[in-house]
Amino acid sequence: MKIQRITYLSLGSNLGNQLDHLQKALYLIAQHIGRIAKVSSVYKTKSWGFESDDFLNTCIKVSTHLSPEKLLDKVLKIENDLGRTRNESNPDSNRDYQARTIDIDVLLFDDEIIFYKDLKVPHPRMLERRFVLEPLAEITKRTKHPIAKETILSALQHCTDQTEVEKTKLILKRPISLVEKYNYIAIEGNIGAGKTTLAKMIGDDFNAKLVLERFADNPFLPKYYADMERYAFPLEMSFLADRYQQLSDDLAQFDLFKNFIVSDYYIFKSLIFAQVSLAKEEYMLYRRMFDLMYKEITKPDLYVYLYQNTERLLENIKKRGRDYEQNIAQEYLENIHKGYSNFIKTEQNLNTLIIDISEFDFENKKSDYDAVIGLINNYTITKK
Predict the structure, then answer these.
(1) Residue range 304-312: average pLDDT?
(2) Which of 57, 128, 173, 199 has a C-alpha 20 to 30 A away from that of 324?
C-alpha cells in the first residue's frame, strides 16, 4: 500500500529561458513525482556561492507516493532531461556551484530526517538561504523544520543571509495532474491493443486503483474460440454478469489510499463483442439484459480507446502466446473495431479520447508512454 507523503522542493534556473525551464520542470514533476499542491511566486536573486547571472527561484509543495530514494532519482532524471550539467570532477558534490538550466533541491520530506547516500533531508543549507526561505514561507509558514524545531516563517525571520530577494510578477502555471483531474478512467481497445498494460503502468505510476478484467477465469473462453457459434451466448452472458458485478463493487468502494480508479475495460465492451458474436435473436435478448445493467453503472470521467491496426494486433496476440487466441481471424478483429467505432460515434454521454498507438511502443519506450500520458492529461473533459 502506497501512502501519500508531502515534500517541498526548491527550483532555480539562471541559464537560457529561465521561466520556461521552471515551467517545464513543474510539468515533469507533476507527471513523474506527484500532485503539485502549491507553487510560490517567482523570485529573482543574485547567484549564491559563485559569480554568475541572476537566478529565478520558486518553491513547490508536492504530494507523492514515492520513497525518498526514488524521489531523488526522479529529481536527478528531470534535471538531466532539462539539460542540467554537473561538475565532471565531482558530479555529486554539494558544492557544485555553477550556472544551470535547472536546479531542484529536496527541502523537506514530511517531518523526516534522512541521511541516504546523496540525499540529506532537511536540506543542509536551506536555513542559510533567503532565496529558499522566502518562497517556501509563502506556501507553508507553519511547517516546522524537523531539526531546528522552528517554523519556516520563524526561520526566515532569523535568517542572517543578506542576499536581496526580489519577488517578481512572473507567473508559473500549476500543472493539473491525472490524480486531480479524474476519478475514473476506462481504457479500451481491441484484442491485443495493450489496454491492460497501459492500465497497469498508470496504476503504478499514479497510485491508482486497478480494475482489471477477469477474462482468465472465464471457463467458456477457450471453448468459444474452438466453437464460436455454440459458445457465443453463454460466453457473452457470463462476461456481462461478471463485468457488471466487478464494476459495481469496485467503483462503489473507493480506496482511500489510492488517487483514482483506472480500468482496462468498460461495460459497453460487452455489447460490442455481443454484436459480433451473437445471432440476431440471441443479441436481442442479450440487449434487453444489457440495457437494464448499463443504467446502473458509473460512467468514467474519461473513456480512452487505444487504436492499433490489425497487423499490429495479430503480432501482439502471437507474442503474448495465449493458446486459445492464436487462431483469431483478421476479419474478427476488424469487426470488433467496427463495433467500437460505431459505439464511439453514437455514444454522446462519454468523454472519449481516441489514441492511435499503431506506431507506439509505450511498454518499452518511455517517450511513447509519456506521449500517451500527455494526451490523457491534456484532454479537456466536459460535463455530460
Answers:
(1) 93
(2) 199
Task: Give the CATH superfamily of 5-167.
Answer: 7,8-Dihydro-6-hydroxymethylpterin-pyrophosphokinase HPPK (3.30.70.560)
CB atoms within 10 A of CB 162: 6
Question: Is the pLDDT score of 100 beyond 50?
Answer: yes
- Give the separation between CA 127 and CA 133, rounded to whole angstroms: 7
**Residue 333 corresponds to which cell in the numbers above?**
478483429
- Domain limits, CATH 3.40.50.300, in the chain: 178-378
Q: Give the C-alpha distances (Å, rounded to integers) separating 319 from 35, 59, 197, 281, 326.
A: 36, 47, 14, 36, 10
Which of 274, 328, 329, 263 lies closest to 297 in space, CA to CA?
A: 263
- Contact by Cβ (8 Å): 116, 92: no
Query: Which among 15, 19, 21, 17 has a CA at the least distance from the CA of 79?
Result: 21
CATH 3.30.70.560 range(s) for the chain read 5-167
Name the pLDDT band for 255 (thresholds 50, 70, 90): low
CATH of domain 178-378: 3.40.50.300
Q: Which residues contact 159 (CB under 8 A, 6 or more apart)?
A: 127, 128, 129, 130, 133
If you ran DSSP here, which 8-state letter would residue 144 be given? Answer: B
Q: Is 270 exposed, middle or buried (0-12, 13-18, 19+ CB in 10 A)?
A: buried
- Mean pLDDT for the stretch of residues 4-30: 94
Active site residues: 264
List the end-to-end C-alpha distance of the chain, in Å, as a whole number: 33
Residue 87's pLDDT band (cuts 50, 70, 90)? low
Quick check: 91 pLDDT over 60? no
- Between CA 179 and CA 202 the distance in angstroms is 11
Q: Are 44 and 145 in contact (CB under 8 A)?
A: no
